[in-house]
Design goal:
Layout: H1 2-6, H2 8-46, H3 59-69, E1 88-90, E2 96-98, E3 109-129, E4 132-141, E5 151-156, E6 165-171, E7 181-186, E8 192-195, E9 201-213, E10 218-223, E11 228-231, E12 234-241, E13 245-250, E14 256-260
Antiparallel strand pairs: 1-2, 3-4, 3-9, 4-5, 6-7, 7-8, 9-10, 11-12, 12-13, 13-14
């Protein structure tokens, strides 16, 4: 006991030093353990199983982009007539009619009847002369503007050419030259045709039409290319008539109007 009393401080110091030595010896093990825990935490947080991304649905965004690419158009004319009021026109019967582009003017012209005009070639006569066979061919062009030019006759031989055709060949029957077959080549396009007394040739060369303009109760019958129409305070010339349409030319401004008539309207 005396020893302890005399050396109490040394004993305590020795115990403290021993504890410090043990702590210093245990410190590397503690550091290694903490480092291993940190590595495990890092691995658990970083190396997680991440599911791959699926295909994104961009249909709404694509639709929005397409709408944005189309400029918005605001029409303050037809049919709203915000700044220009609708014009009305009184018909001869006294009823009111909307004066828009479809109900008045050239677009309101209606074809009530259409009749084809033919080019006809007929072999009228074949005669034998000292210089060979001579043909008399009748030409009827119903579409000719001048009435005097619609019917004519031409005398011709093989190799001759006129304003309508060229005679390429005359083939008489052995015992009856008057019943020959004549081969012709038309000037407009080079079409080759054959005619005889029993087999004339014809093709559609144009049309004549009956027209009606309802807003003014005007009717034009048998109008050809070149005819003059007056309606709506304007004059129009018919410059072309085809199977499907007619073309009008305004005399005031030379503007052309095409009127479809695939289905002929009732008169």
């Amino acid at each position: 006991m005396d020893f302890l009393k005399k050396h109490y401080e040394k004993v305590v110091l020795g115990v403290v030093l021993l504890g410090l030595a043990v702590a210093v010896a245990f410190l590397p093990l503690k550091i290694a353990g903490e480092k291993q825990k940190l590595d495990e935490m890092r691995t658990r947080l970083i190396s997680r199983n991440v599911q791959p991304l699926t295909n994104l649905d961009l249909s709404l965004a694509d639709a929005a982009l397409k709408r944005a690419a189309v400029p918005a158009t605001v029409d303050f004319s037809a049919p709203n007539k915000l700044f220009n009021p609708m014009l009305w026109q009184k018909t001869p019967e006294g009823r009111l009619l909307k004066a828009d582009a479809s109900s008045v003017g050239p677009n309101a012209v209606v074809v009530t009847r259409q009749t084809p005009l033919y080019l006809k070639l007929a072999l009228d006569e074949v005669t034998m002369t000292d210089s060979g066979l001579r043909c008399r061919i009748g030409i009827e062009n119903e579409a000719a503007l001048n009435p005097r030019d619609r019917k004519k006759q031409r005398y011709c031989r093989q190799g001759d050419k006129n304003e309508v055709f060229a005679v390429r060949e005359v083939r008489p029957l052995p015992n009856n030259p008057a019943n020959a077959t004549v081969a012709l080549e038309l000037n407009d396009g080079g079409q080759r045709v054959e005619i005889s007394k029993d087999h004339p040739f014809q093709r559609v060369e144009g049309y004549v039409v009956d027209l009606k303009y309802g807003p003014e109760n005007k009717v034009w019958n048998a109008r050809r290319v070149g005819a003059l129409l007056t309606f709506g305070g304007e004059e129009y010339n018919i410059v072309d008539i085809t199977e499907d349409e007619i073309v009008l030319l305004a005399k005031s401004n030379l503007k052309k109007w095409t009127i479809k008539h695939s289905a002929v309207a009732a008169p």
